[in-house]
């Protein structure tokens, strides 16, 4: 089984971190690699950056399909481009917000999300609703640390997770950024409830879906997009009869 | 007051149609223009195309800000890139799905959405939920006609709208595609309940928000994105200190 | 276009205030007048008063229909009698709670309502639910100032709006009383997020619906009521074959 | 214990029917009487009529308070004026829609409402939501028979109830009109699931609340309304310091 | 009419208390007795104990059916085994959580539940959702006193109820344990809003359903279970053709 | 890693089937065994049988804890006793309804449940709500075949699944009975959308949680139950200081 974890931003250190985190939890016999786009923002902390990360993400899906990848994990907590990616991929595509929330709801009854900047909590709540966890999610909190600085801000992250447990009554915590992946264990030790990293959760859930032989229906919402002309800078992204996506 | 309606696809005839539809309903003294991106898909009928339409849409927002535009209408029923656009714009940005649903819920009690292809109904339902109309929307129907062929498929559109009224009990119909704008009056005459076109609805609602002096809070979710490096094809879309967005 | 704003209480100063607020935002060419009933309570701060304000409101709708008014705004935050009014009127009827919530949800993501007396918050929450804003509305707060004293209580109103922003995370505020209309700008300046007055919002939204040519379906829930005998004090309010409503 | 059932319309035969239905189910020792207003519509089949029935209903509550009535049932399926009545009454006030839905949800898992005219289903659904039965209520159906003709339309009522059971999967039926009270047993025999009449349900639930010693909190939403001037036709309904309501 | 209140735990003093509380509110002519199982836990403070209380509860239902009991109240706030009991009983079965929440929502607008141990609040919230009171219930609080010690912890109970009123804005309080039944009046006096004990509420509601002649549909979800072999310790609990349940 | 799948009924052939289905999807290195209780019903098709299956299920959890099992799957679609089991187990416990719904919502947008007897659909819907899939689940259907006869009723199962796809618009189907496990592949081939068997889904999800190191919080709702006396037939199930559960 070949899983690919895609970091939708262009920061190499984060791609490496994500790859390590995914490989730790994969089953024996599962090949996991981690890639990043050739274009787009250095990190994703706004709707604007999320939108501009998607073309590069889709390029990586197209390349993965050519290589026969079995399933993908999109490693940004806004789950950018996941629906679009599903139209290109033959196998499952899971976002790390989706994966982490599913996992948290399987071990706890009321989870909290603890993320980076407050400005991203609107998107997080939107995903909570989309995935059906409105009742299960008791709070979305931000520790107000930028994505690329999160590694040095462990104490603030732990503090915010503790507040989620003590003030909101959370019995599980979802870490709201791929950059927090390697802090998961240490935060869990300190807060005393299960703490979920979406990169690891996405890896095992994608692996699970492949093991079950599940892939989106070939018709309907996630069918391949209709052949269509693409112009300007994005020429090269069109869908053609002879090649699902022809990335320049 | 200067309103700009942005067609997020690259089909000129559709941009012209959208501009006409918007100008019909604007108040005296409101200047309305219609533009389209320099890049992207010819029409939007999938998550994939929607995602790839957004960079060009954002480019148009950046250009509009340089010109002092007061408010924007995004004229595709998936409301692509609306949140990202709000981070760039000083004034209001409204999607036509959002606008049409708000208008429908102000004149009826139970509206139905009638859109183009069945594969887009998932996105339409997602927007129904996001905007709070889960109880107000009794059905999302598709007439299975592609966006660029809708003008010649009036009979199928009317049939589907009639089913919404007779079978689903809708007392208002929302047309689910910008390309249906000029069919609104004739469809309304035939189905006997109010029929709402989002291009017109977006125009008057954007105008309303400007008249009220309302614009998103300068802090919080829709604050300008942080300065950030952008690489690859999308270089030129970075946010800089001296210019909000520097489109190449 | 002829819009009529109806103050459902019998206090002349408030009718004048409401008229001024509405005219400020109306488009050129829109005639706006403001009226009040010949019967009913001096202000509305309970379910009891709201119920007794409705006959006088309906009387004004009947008079407006005789004059050919195009649309109505009901200027009390409980939106009293709006559904009944829709059965009498040919054009749109909007309540100011409905209008303000719609406008707030178009510029912010999470609005709060700040109203007069705590005893009215139950009705406000009921309207939040009815209009679909259960997720969008993060708080309903009261500043515990009576309707007719609100003009002298600006500081308390500003305090409560600030709490909505700082404690509840609201990024927009809806003012929960028609009597607050002229405080809207000053409160907005102080709290730093968009603040919405329902009288102004109702005016531009009613105007928008008329511009769109939208009016409730002639059949169904808002069809004219069946002809029916009315006895006692309320005789004169019956629906007759030759006149929709014969107000004594 | 003294219960009063108020028919909010002015048709004597219906008041008599309602009184009989209530007395059948009351416990030994409970005095039940049935009254009707001195003003208002002959029957209630629209929002308009519902609104104009409320002053007369409130008059009857005020008279009942003077007589020391312990609890009230409002016998119209739109539950008109119930919140206003709670502000005047010391004891509980229950609407028959509320009562019937509570009772149905205590014996079945998925109830349907079967009412008179289709135009009243919007109000019925609104009450379903208000009382928390959105998930429990699988359908709101109308048999399109006017209120005052329902007694002669038993077959159509039975047909519609059967459809609720067979097509909607209802395992309980709520009759959506006080005028259906005496049809309850016969309909129940024919459709094979529990059928609930709100007049009877309201009687036993009001009796239950009195037995429990429960009455609305003296402070808060249902506190007596503030003293207030009332003008015009409705003078006489003002709240005064020396008398809660002075009905002319 | 013969009502039976079943204490699902095996503590005699609690059974006695429950019987007294039920008899106080029953109507003249209603016979109320209180029983307890022959097996199971001494008190119920976990999912584990709740599960193990159910066989003994079902045994009591089977015995009651042999005696011709008309309706049952299950007197533990987790409403254990209520659906299973409904399949055995010909008449209504009500849990005290269900009963108390229904009663509270008939007199107040926003109730809070105050229960024993924090670990049981998950189950309480689940029941709030199941019964449709998600919007009506503003808080579920625990006073962290074990079930069998609640009688000596009146002050902590009152404190927690006061917080529900003052901090959560509750206008009614539901007591979350059968063991609190006799504290209901005194707590109500101290907190100033209606306080509901589920044992009393269950008694009057069960009595109400019998008076209405309502019992679950004989087909569908609550039909008698299919005849089935039962093995091991639970042999004797099988359903047989000649006897609904043959308890050893 | 040692996973245990518990068939909560006492039919050996079904335990064998469940074991086979689980082992097919487990990763290399994961030991999976399948067990059944020493007491309880031969199959589970009612609330009554579900309740009586739980003691035997809990006995198996207690035995598994003594053996050091890492995680459990409860292989009955009603997810009986799952919360109680979580209090006894150190590792994760997943029900097959929960597992199947999570998996379906990861590959499709709108799933349907197709189960055995119509009488069990109430419980299925309750679980849909509990797990947050109210919006994701478009229908719960029954093919009216008893659990132990399902293997010979493939055609009826396929028919019902097809109706879910064609009439309800489902793009994924959840099989609502452990006995359907080996029909999953063939049904999937016939209906053309992903079909999910909960036994397999539970196995890979339980395995995933163990790989992530996630287990319920040691405090809170799923903490070990308090030490407590158990009497009668169920003596031997008490929680003691020296042994978590002492099954006789």
From TrEMBL, chains A, B, C, D, E, F:
Cited Pfam families: Asp_Glu_race
Top EC class, one word: isomerase
Recorded catalytic activity of this chain's protein: a D-5-monosubstituted hydantoin = a L-5-monosubstituted hydantoin; D-5-benzylhydantoin = L-5-benzylhydantoin
Entry superkingdom: Bacteria
EC number of the protein: 5.1.99.5
GO molecular function: amino-acid racemase activity; hydantoin racemase activity
Family that this chain belongs to: Belongs to the HyuE racemase family.
Protein name as annotated: Hydantoin racemase
UniProt source species: Cellulomonas terrae
């Amino acid at each position: 089984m070949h899983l690919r974890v895609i970091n939708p931003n262009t920061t190499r250190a984060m791609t490496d971190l994500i790859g390590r985190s995914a490989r730790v939890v994969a089953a024996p016999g599962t090949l996991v690699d981690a890639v990043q786009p050739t274009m787009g923002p250095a990190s994703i902390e706004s709707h604007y950056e999320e939108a501009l990360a998607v073309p590069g993400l889709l390029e990586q899906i197209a390349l993965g399909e050519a290589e026969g990848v079995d399933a993908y994990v999109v490693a940004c907590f806004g789950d950018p481009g996941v629906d679009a990616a599903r139209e290109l991929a033959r196998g499952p595509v899971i976002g790390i917000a989706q994966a982490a929330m599913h996992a948290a709801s399987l071990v706890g009854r009321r989870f909290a999300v603890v993320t980076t900047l407050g400005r991203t909590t609107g998107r997080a709540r939107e995903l909570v609703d989309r995935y059906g966890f409105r009742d299960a999610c008791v709070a979305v909190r931000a520790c107000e640390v930028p994505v690329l600085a999160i590694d040095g801000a462990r104490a603030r992250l732990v503090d915010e997770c503790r507040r989620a447990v003590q003030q909101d009554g959370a019995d599980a915590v979802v870490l709201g950024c791929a950059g927090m992946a390697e802090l998961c264990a240490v935060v869990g030790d300190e807060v005393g409830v299960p703490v979920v990293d979406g990169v690891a959760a996405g890896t095992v859930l994608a692996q699970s879906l492949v093991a079950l032989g599940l892939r989106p229906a070939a018709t309907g919402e996630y069918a391949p997009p209709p052949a269509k002309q693409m112009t300007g800078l994005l020429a090269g992204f069109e869908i053609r009869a002879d090649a699902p996506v022809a990335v320049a």
